[in-house]
Amino acid sequence: MTYALRKVGLLILTLWAAITLNFVLPRLMPGSPADAAVAKLSQNGPVTAATRKAIEIQLGVPNGNLIEQYGQYLKQVVTLHFGVSYTFYPQPVAELVGQALPYTLILVGLVTIIAFVCGTLLGVLAAWKRGTWLDSLPTLGGSFASAFPYFWTALLLLFFLGYVFKIFPTSGAYGVTNVPGFNGDFLGSAVNHAILPAITILITSLGGWILGMRNTMISTLGDDYVTFAEANGLKPRTVAIRYAARNAILPNLTSFGLALGGVVGGSVLVETVFGYPGIGYLLLKAVTNQDYPLMQALFLMITVSVLLANFLVDILYGVLDPRTRK
Hints:
MetI-like fold, 13 helices, transmembrane, MetI-like, transport
């Protein structure tokens, strides 16, 4: 119980620091959306101070000193009301995030979980059968696949499977003729559009899980308690899963917590290459256009998801390895 309370206290403290940093960082960037709008208008003649003030009010640019802005910002965080997006004016930020989040969670989240499970199991198999083809095939294949960057793999798949053979769509999350909803046509189109981005993420991330689990488990197989379990005549499967893999999975579990927390942030490069309307693509648009409200909402959501994922991993650590509770 003390262990869990310590972790909760650390989570609250870190969350406050992240929220404050999320307030400060956008304000350190040079310029503002109002400056960009004024620069466009000034091409047709000088812009008066009244016109600039009207633009700032229309865009909802924060006013007052930093302390007042910080108070307004904390109120927005509590109420989950982040104002209107400058880029997609007058659409509210909450509405934009609500539209993009399901695509990222389903695509990146589901693929990340599949890659972790498959990679961990293949790593266990490779370590247990080390020196055989069951070891060489997944490790060499995983190393080769993970050597290519996200965008390079995405471009290759896009060119061959999208443009040359025309098997899958090349951009978007669903067909232009489909209406979003829980119907067969839309769901089929959404799955068809998600296949290429999903394959890209799976190929480039699977190798890391395989190699990480294999290397850690080989080290664990040399420990005394594994030798003692084998000497007692336990089944090889029991020794591999309940003794060796249970302890070897802890470093992989930490990495999985970070990866799972980063799911909300999406995969910016993959979503950009495929024009997939997820959180990563939305974040790129926000940064490019200095959209403070949208940036702050996305950064805060990504930070909170990472912190919560790591908190859950810490609690799970205490369950799997009681030594961490002391």
